[in-house]
Amino acid sequence: MKKSALLAVLLLMLAILLPGRSMAEETKLRDSVLNLSYTPIKMELPKCSQKIAVVKFTESKPIKDVGRSSTFRFIPSVDVGTWMAQSVFSQLKSQGFDVQYFETMDEAGDMFIITGIANKVYINRPGQLEMKFKVQFDGMVTKNNKLLFAKNYTSKQEKEMANTGDNAGKLMAGMHDTLDIFLPAAISAVNNAE
Fold this sequence. Notes:
Elements: H1 2-27, E1 30-34, E2 52-55, E3 58-59, E4 67-69, E5 72-76, H2 80-94, E6 99-102, H3 105-108, E7 112-127, E8 130-143, E9 146-160, H4 167-193
Parallel strand pairs: 1-5, 2-6, 2-7, 3-7, 4-7
Antiparallel strand pairs: 4-5, 7-8, 8-9
């Protein structure tokens, strides 16, 4: 009887100590900088003769990290709002639009403004062969402090049992998905307001 009681106490202590160790290990994730970039793709966009200002996206709440794996916490290489707006700017510029980039709406003056609110950019990689990612923003078009268009856009994917590849590339693919829907609607809003 004494051996079984001692064994029960040891097992109970072990059960208490193990979760504590794994929680401590979870907080010791190493930071890994995720190089957020954007390469334009071919999109079907309406023509537009107006000069367009792209303004840095605000963040609905500060985005300090953009994901986790079992060993890393992914830190964005640039501010997420800047990354989203620079993505919009480079996509429009690559397709021949007359576009300028600004940090604030005041700098853009009375131009048509394409901007937005960065809601979520996140990668979860619990294992080497599985991942979930999400890119979400509210895209909008304004002119002279009047909102002409606004809509929420989300790209969300889950992949399992496959080589999931580059983390930053997955987030860029999420931007491609959302911009391919947002930009035609934004340009149409500019054209309809002329």
